[in-house]
């Protein structure tokens, strides 16, 4: 497609990506900013989604890298979950091209709202690890595969779904859950990016400009996760869940 990347557009989208990367590292939901911004710049929806996956890979990679360096992530323990999340996202990206997503579109705002309410009202949310419901293997073949499938199929709120799964099923404390959620989200982003790229739906130069912004924002956001933990994660997860639910409902019912 024809697209002229001016200096002004590049600067605006770089700034948007930096803010989105900061939010994503802590609570997820950065796509609420980047996807509308890409469409404002003149990209068709499919190309906006594909280019968004490229820049999102930058944010999730640098946040994951920071969490690994700080010891919040044990790569060996989530190796199978990473693989399952990747496979799930690849299958979801293929599946979304074959089936009607309208039912999921109707259900999604309420699912994300439920996540926000869980984080707001649950007394189980803390920095400390709790009782583990699923073994790492069972978690990989259920939660990781399922959320990965969802991310490839639809996408909004994936980070929140992963974080919820780690808290409620793996028994992780909130900071640890956020760190592992970002790592699995990087895996699903890569899988989806591959299929968008194969379909020619990625504008690489624009995506790389935004990736740089994502890297800065994600690094700053992940530092706050390590230093502030639950104090900053919990309210931002709740806020972003409400924002995503409202945005999805507004889109469905043409409120704007």
Describe the protein in words.
The chain is mainly α. It has one domain. It is 76% helix and 0% strand. The protein is built from ten helices and no strands. It has helices spanning 7-26, 31-40, 45-69, 79-95, 102-121, 136-153, 158-168, 174-198, 204-228, 230-252. Helix 3 (45-69) packs antiparallel against helix 8 (174-198), helix 3 (45-69) runs parallel beside helix 9 (204-228) and helix 7 packs antiparallel against helix 8. It is globular.
Shape: globular
- The rounded Rg comes to 17 Å
Classification by helices and strands: mainly alpha
Helix and strand pattern: HHHHHHHHHH
Helix content: over 70%
Number of domains in the coordinates? 1
* Unreliable stretches: none
Largest sheet: none
If you average the pLDDT, what whole number results?
85
Through-space gap between termini: 28 Å
Main attributes of the structure:
256 residues, TM_pro_TauE-like, Probable membrane transporter protein, globular, transmembrane helix, mainly alpha, transport
In short:
The chain is mostly helical and about 260 residues long. It has ten helices and no strands. The chain has one domain (about 10-255).
List the SSEs and their pairings:
Layout: H1 7-26, H2 31-40, H3 45-69, H4 79-95, H5 102-121, H6 136-153, H7 158-168, H8 174-198, H9 204-228, H10 230-252
């Amino acid at each position: 497609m024809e697209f002229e990347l001016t200096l002004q557009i590049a600067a605006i989208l770089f700034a948007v990506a930096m803010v989105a990367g900061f939010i994503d590292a802590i609570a997820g939901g950065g796509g609420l900013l980047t996807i509308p911004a890409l469409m404002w710049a003149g990209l068709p929806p499919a190309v906006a989604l594909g280019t968004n996956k490229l820049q999102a890979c930058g944010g999730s990679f640098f946040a994951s890298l920071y969490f690994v360096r700080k010891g919040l992530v044990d790569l060996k323990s989530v190796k199978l979950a990473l693989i399952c999340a990747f496979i799930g996202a690849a299958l979801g990206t293929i599946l979304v091209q074959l089936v009607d997503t309208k039912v999921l579109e109707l259900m999604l705002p309420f699912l994300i709202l439920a996540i926000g309410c869980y984080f707001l009202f649950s007394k189980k949310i803390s920095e400390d690890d709790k009782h583990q419901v699923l073994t790492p293997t069972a978690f990989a073949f259920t939660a990781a595969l399922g959320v990965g499938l969802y991310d490839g199929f639809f996408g909004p709120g994936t980070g929140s779904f992963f974080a919820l799964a780690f808290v409620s099923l793996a028994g992780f404390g909130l900071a640890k859950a956020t760190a592992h959620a970002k790592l699995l989200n990087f895996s699903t982003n890569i899988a989806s990016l591959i299929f968008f790229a194969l379909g020619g739906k990625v504008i690489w130069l624009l995506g790389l400009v935004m990736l740089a912004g994502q890297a800065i924002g994600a690094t700053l956001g992940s530092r706050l996760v390590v230093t502030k933990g639950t104090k900053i994660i919990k309210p931002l997860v709740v806020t972003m869940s409400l924002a995503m639910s409202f945005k999805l409902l507004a889109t469905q019912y043409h409120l704007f």
